[in-house]
User: Which sequence fits this backbone?
């Protein structure tokens, strides 16, 4: 169970940093890195699914021990939301290229958790 807890914490940390990075680019002086309307839409999708809240809650729940009830539920919410974020970003990858590294990292985490759920 310790391994699952560490994976969940790693996912939460990377998800939180992705949300903060999108927010930093959106509100910061570096808006020229991506097209403003596509960036605004990405921020709306992130806010709609409350990915920052999911990351905070996943971190809080797994801070000391693996929570067998709450953690899989939060991970399933993330995987569902991330499917929509991935679809939008892949359709607009030329305009949102600055986020492509984080996209691939979090997509691989999704695959990791899908494999874990399929083995169970």
Assistant:
């Amino acid at each position: 169970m310790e391994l699952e807890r560490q994976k969940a914490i790693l996912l939460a940390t990377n998800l939180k940093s992705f949300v903060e990075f999108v927010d930093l680019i959106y509100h910061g002086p570096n808006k020229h890195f991506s097209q403003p309307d596509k960036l605004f839409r990405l921020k709306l999708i992130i806010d709609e699914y409350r990915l920052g809240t999911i990351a905070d809650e996943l971190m809080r729940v797994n801070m000391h021990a693996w929570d067998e009830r709450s953690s899989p539920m939060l991970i399933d919410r993330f995987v569902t939301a991330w499917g929509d974020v991935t679809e939008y970003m892949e359709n607009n990858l030329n305009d949102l290229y600055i986020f492509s590294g984080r996209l691939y990292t979090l997509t691989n985490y999704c695959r990791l958790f899908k494999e874990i759920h399929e083995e169970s």
About this structure: Residues 52 and 95 are 23 Å apart (CA to CA). The chain has a mean pLDDT of 88. The chain has one domain: 2-119. Residues 2-119 form one domain.
